[in-house]
């Protein structure tokens, strides 16, 4: 599992870890049933506190993306297509809201923002 921690984003480390694991689950890079590294091992690899990795895993459990069993570890939870779609829609809405807020700061109107989105979609 590839996780990159940045100290310059201002985003809490547990949130960075949770977000990157979440993206790997939603993109199906991590498939259902895949065992995640133990919290202790992940903390050691990332050179962060076990409390930090524990919090990241707890956030993922709250969102229903992973499940943990005492003594066995944490695993990617089986997702149904509707649940995955809902997760994707939530992510899109969150990121679009961030884009709208940033556009407002830069005095970019809805038409220009829409044109940027359409341009990006055409590039895909």
From TrEMBL:
InterPro entries: Tscrpt_reg_HTH_GntR (IPR000524), WH-like_DNA-bd_sf (IPR036388), WH_DNA-bd_sf (IPR036390). It comes from the Bacteria. PROSITE patterns: HTH_GNTR. The keyword Transcription applies. Pfam families: GntR. Residues 11-79 form the HTH gntR-type domain. Keywords: DNA-binding, Transcription, Transcription regulation. GO terms for molecular function: DNA binding; DNA-binding transcription factor activity. The keyword Transcription regulation applies. This is GntR family transcriptional regulator. It comes from Aminipila butyrica.
